């Protein structure tokens, strides 16, 4: 073990990031010459109790990646080594290309239980192979964006900045998480690579270690403010209000350093913010803003603001980084149609909607959302624009459709305004927003 | 956006996977010519309520990766683009090498609150830069292994297999998670790449979609069993006990397919297992085992076995894949010493242990663990073998020490036996296992 194990998954290996049964089932389809078209639908059956809606995120990116999935030579060699696969099948895998269609919701679309986020139409041996990876990819961004948007809503227009890279589950979560945060409306991130790669502003303050490495807090403040005019100083290492007084002194002596903000990271944030605000205002430093952090979630942010805490921005990490109150969503990728006929597993107490589908979000004449309709894909439904759109057609990615992923942030902000208020509430509980089945789907479901 | 965003983080970019303030503070240290040696200690202050111990995992791998961290040309260009850094500093970063020491616990060491998992001794501008990445890397494996070992304990010797790749937070979590699962004692994984890369047996059964794609469940069973003699058949797609009867018929007609196991994935697993066992035994198929899955956690496994459910192996995913009841551990990487003097942040109600440290686990004469002592690194403590050992010395990885990471699985199994029983209990609550401070550390802590 002289070489550290790499963190990377190379393109040619990505196809192996799957559950073994996807490969054994695919070999079985190959042996049985089962080549009819299948439709698989990606959805979740139940909303987590701590959520009133989820933001469907990652599905466009996932579909784009999956449409280019290949089994590289190394991957094939490794599969051969398992002894489970015939050489003929491995050769077939080497030539494997996704040639089907993938329909997706646009990035950032709010979704509810049983609504399709993505559907794959392809010969069954192609569609089956995508299952595990598409679920892994979509879940991450969907779970993280759906948590992050709640912090954004709680902050009522004040900037929320991601400080959570260290708390996230590994490297891919930390990097792609920032993409989800961007969609959710965060103002920035401390995560350098994530921010650079996914076009979200990179922010940072300072750590307690910087203060502690200096013999004197005041000297640490002064040095850092000189290096970075317009910076944010962390004032709670020893005594928060004493720290604020030191910032005020430095601003008196060297106003040109233009300290922009102070950061509170421990203690009673509401009380300390009030105390700090009073000191700063008294010193005529109304322009210095207050950033608060320290294990905050949306409920704490809401409470702080209700209590009138003069906090101007929030840094959040631990709770958001793993979506601690709902770290997993029970996504399903289910066969719903094969060879032109509906397929459904009979699960007592569970909804299983057969056939390829479409999703409609009805608006009233003021543009407000009044209810969703889950329908058959080809059913005539007079309910506005269909939300599932073909991103991949016969294996080819539609670049115009893909470009819509970049509008996720605007899409989220626009959509949230249009929902009834109870969809946006932070408290646990379900909203009354109606999701119904179309007549044809209703009929087919009761039949199957 | 014609190219899908890559999932990979290349070696030269990995150094950018950090919080911005690590880089701005490091530039400040560079500008201030602060080059004294610092010690940072990685620990957590509080055990999650749902855990009685954590398995320290990932720290040896992380230390090995960090000892080779480099700022590649692309990384430096991207940093230059932020406008925050002087060219002189960027040149210095280009030559940056970690030249310090990293002490770590061996992979798989059980740990309790306030115990150091890893300590870095290096010039402050080197030690500071590692913070965010080491926390991200160690947290993932520690959180996942600490959950997985609970499922292993609950199963009381029966194999537990990871089915959770689709539920984990992204690609890195899915791949490195298997490493943590191996350490924790799982018997196998369905995750092909994870299993191949981290040397854990790859297992798989079949999905409901395979059954549904066939017109008849019996024909699906027969075809799959012929393709894969000795396989596991999923019997709950339509009616579980009917499914079992079909398996029995196939075994009567074609005993050479040698079905090895059936899998139950829904319904009342305890009752269905009893019913299935009775049918199989009646048919003389005592050798066919029963695998159960379906959102299982350690408490459900324990209850099933207490109730006498004849289940021989468990497939687990959703709850384990994100460690749903404790998805995050509040790791701290704190400056504890700089320029030879202790450094501590004053946090009311929080323990902050100054100085470089060592951890001892005392044994009685029968080898059972009787208590831990957190001591100063250089203090003479008569309590057996020190657990923190130098993995990286003056920037060089010790290959012999690194090889100990491969023994994590055996280390975990051995250690668990040695703890008092209440450390292994699954119920929420703290064990009585004592963790104390050495006399010198106690003295220093009360002083600082």
CATH fold-type name of the largest domain in chain A? nicotinate phosphoribosyltransferase
Strand pairing plus helix content of chain A: what structural class?
alpha/beta
The pLDDT mean of chain A sits at 95
Largest sheet of chain A: 7 strands, antiparallel
Strand order of the largest sheet of chain A: 13-12-1-5-3-16-17
Comma- or semicolon-separated keywords:
nicotinate phosphoribosyltransferase, homodimer, globular, TIM Barrel, alpha/beta, 448 residues, seven-stranded antiparallel β-sheet, Nicotinate phosphoribosyltransferase (chains A, B), six-stranded parallel β-sheet
Characterization of the model:
- The structure is a homodimer of 448-residue chains.
- The radius of gyration of chain A is 26 Å and the shape is globular.
- The N and C termini of chain A lie far apart (55 Å).
- With 448 residues, the first copy, chain A, is an alpha/beta fold.
- Chain A has 2 domains: 11-144 and 326-355 and 386-418, nicotinate phosphoribosyltransferase (Alpha-Beta Barrel), CATH 3.20.140.10; 147-321, Aldolase class I (TIM Barrel).
- Chain A has helices spanning 11-14, 20-31, 59-66, 73-81, 87-94, 124-127, 131-154, 170-184, 192-198, 208-213, 217-227, 240-253, 269-282, 298-306, 318-321, 399-403, 408-418, 421-424, 439-447; strands spanning 37-44, 54-56, 101-104, 109-111, 118-123, 160-162, 188-189, 232-234, 261-264, 289-292, 313-316, 331-338, 341-342, 357-363, 369-376, 389-393, 396-397, 435-437.
- A 7-stranded antiparallel sheet of chain A has the order 13-12-1-5-3-16-17. In chain A, strands 7-6-11-10-9-8 form a 6-stranded parallel sheet.
- The first copy, chain A, contains 19 helices and 18 strands.
- Chain A is 40% helix and 18% strand.
- The interface between A and B is large, with 117 and 117 residues.
């Amino acid at each position: 073990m002289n070489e550290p194990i790499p963190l990377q998954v190379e393109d040619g290996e990505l196809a192996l990031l799957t559950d073994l049964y996807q490969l054994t089932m695919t070999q079985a389809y190959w042996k049985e010459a089962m080549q009819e078209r299948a439709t698989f639908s990606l959805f979740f059956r139940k909303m987590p109790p701590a959520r009133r809606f989820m933001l469907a995120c990652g599905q466009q990116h996932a579909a784009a990646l999956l449409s280019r999935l290949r089994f590289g030579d190394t991957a094939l060699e490794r599969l051969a080594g398992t002894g489970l696969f015939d050489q003929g099948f491995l050769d077939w895998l080497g030539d494997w290309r996704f040639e089907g269609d993938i329909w997706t919701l646009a990035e950032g679309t709010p979704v509810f239980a049983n609504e399709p986020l993505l559907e794959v139409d392809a010969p069954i041996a192609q569609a089956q192979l995508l299952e595990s990876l598409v679920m892994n990819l979509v879940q991450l961004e969907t779970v993280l964006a759906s948590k992050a948007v709640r912090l954004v809503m709680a902050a009522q227009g004040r900037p929320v900045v991601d400080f959570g890279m260290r708390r996230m589950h590994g490297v891919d979560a930390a990097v792609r998480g920032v993409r989800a945060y961007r969609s959710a409306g965060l103002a920035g991130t401390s995560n350098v690579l994530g921010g650079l790669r996914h076009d979200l502003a990179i922010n940072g303050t300072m750590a307690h270690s910087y203060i502690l490495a200096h013999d004197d807090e005041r000297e640490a403040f002064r040095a850092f403010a000189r290096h970075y005019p317009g910076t944010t100083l962390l004032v709670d290492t020893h005594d928060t209000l004493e720290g604020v007084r030191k910032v005020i002194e430095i601003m008196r002596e060297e106003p040109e350093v233009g300290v922009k903000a102070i950061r509170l990271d421990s203690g009673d944030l509401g009380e300390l913010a009030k105390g700090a605000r009073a000191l700063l205002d008294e010193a005529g430093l109304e322009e210095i803003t207050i950033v608060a952090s320290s294990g905050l979630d949306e409920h704490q942010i809401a409470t702080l603001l209700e209590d009138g805490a003069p906090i101007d921005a929030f840094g959040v990490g631990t709770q958001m980084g793993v979506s601690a109150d709902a770290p997993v969503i029970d996504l399903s990728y289910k066969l719903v149609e094969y060879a032109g006929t509906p397929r459904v597993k009979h699960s007592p107490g569970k909804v299983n909607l057969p056939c390829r589908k479409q999703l409609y979000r009805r608006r009233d004449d003021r543009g407000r959302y009044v209810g969703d309709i889950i329908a058959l894909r080809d059913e005539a439904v007079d309910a506005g624009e269909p939300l599932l759109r073909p991103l991949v057609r016969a294996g080819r990615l539609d670049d115009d459709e893909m470009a819509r992923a970049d509008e996720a942030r605007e899409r989220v902000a626009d959509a949230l305004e249009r929902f009834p208020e109870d969809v946006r509430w932070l408290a646990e509980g379900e909203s009354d927003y109606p999701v119904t089945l179309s007549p044809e789907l209703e009929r087919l479901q009761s039949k199957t």
